[in-house]
Amino acid sequence: VEGDWFVSLDNQASTQVTAIYLTTQPCAGCQNGGQCLEMVLTCGTVEGRCFCRYGFEGEMCEIRTLSRTQLALQVFLLVASNLAMIPALVICYRRRLFTAGTALCINMIVSGWYHLCDTDTVCLLLPTDQLHLLDFATSFSSIAILLLLLARVPAKFEPGWVFAIVVAAAASVSSGNAVVSAVVLAGPPVI
C-alpha cells in the first residue's frame, strides 16, 4: 500500500529500540508515459503495475517495441483511414443531407484527433480519456446515421433523427449504458 510507514523493533532484553522509516509507492516509476495502476489481488494484497502506452513494454515501460519510423507509419495509416468517410460525405451533400454530412465530417475529424492523441503524437485541448468518449459517441452516431441513410429515410426527417442519434450517443457515453441509446432511438424523431 502506498504511503509512509514507521516500523520500530523493541528488544525486550535491552533498552535499545531500532526504528525504520519506509516510503512505498505502487510502481517504482513508469517511463515513456506509462501509468501506474493499482490492482487488488484475490489474496487481498495490492500490487502496482505500469500500464504502457502504445509502442512500449516492460515492467517500467522501458522497452520500445516499435521504431520511430514504424510508429509514425502506423499513426499516419490510422489517421488516414478516417478518409474512408469521404464517399459517404459526398453522398450526403449530393442528397442535400447537410446535417448528416456535418455529423460524419465531425466524426472524421474527432477520430483522427483522438488517434493522434492516443498514440502520443499530438494531444491538444482535451485529455485522451475525454477524446476517447467523444470518438465513441461520434462513431456511434455515424454508424446509426449511415444505417438510416441506407434505409432511405426521407430527407425532411433528417434533422430530427440526426439530433436523436447524437442525443442517444451522448446519453450512452455519459451514463456508460448502451441501453439508453436503444431507448432513445426507439422513439420516432421529433421535428
Write a short abstract of this structure.
By secondary structure, this protein is an alpha+beta fold. Helix content is 49%, strand content 17%.
Can you characterise this structure?
The protein is of the alpha+beta class and about 190 residues long. Helix content is about 50%, strand content about 15%. The protein has 6 helices and 6 strands; from the N terminus they run E-E-E-E-E-E-H-H-H-H-H-H. A two-stranded antiparallel sheet has the order 1-2. A two-stranded antiparallel ribbon has the order 3-4. It has a two-stranded antiparallel sheet with strand order 5-6. Strand 5 and strand 6 (about 65) form a beta hairpin. The relative contact order is 0.08. The model is unreliable at about 175-190 (pLDDT under 50).
Task: Map the helices and strands.
Layout: E1 3-10, E2 17-24, E3 35-40, E4 46-51, E5 56-57, E6 63-64, H1 68-80, H2 86-94, H3 98-118, H4 128-150, H5 158-175, H6 178-186
Antiparallel strand pairs: 1-2, 3-4, 5-6
Helix pairs in contact: 1-3, 2-3, 3-4, 4-5, 5-6
**Low-pLDDT segments, ≥5 res:** 176-191
* Amount of helix: 40-55%
Judging from the principal axes of the Cα atoms, what is the shape? elongated
Secondary-structure class: alpha+beta
State mean pLDDT (0 to 100 scale): 74
Order of helices and strands: EEEEEEHHHHHH
List how many beta strands DSSP finds: 6
What is the alpha-carbon Rg in Å? 25 Å
The main β sheet shows up as: 2 strands, antiparallel
Query: Beta-strand level of the residues, as a percent range?
Result: 15-25%
Largest sheet, spatial ordering of strands: 1-2
Q: Helix count?
A: 6
What is the distance, rounded to the nearest whole angstrom, between the alpha carbons of the first and last residues? Answer: 56 Å
Oligomer: single chain
